[in-house]
Amino acid sequence: PILLNIDNELVYNRFYKDFGPLNLAQITTYLLELRSLLESGAREDRLVVHYCSSHPEK
To answer: In this protein, which residues make up the domain named Dual specificity/tyrosine protein phosphatase N-terminal (predicted)?
Structure first.
């Protein structure tokens, strides 16, 4: 499989104690990366696996 992790590239900047989502620019960056991986993996019939760390600050 093709492994995808964004913990270090797309980091949410907290405001006080919230845990909110990534902003739209970060989501767009993620989707473009995912699209690229899916298109490259489709030629090889490979799965893309998104994984994340167990650290809550990520």
So the answer is: 4-57
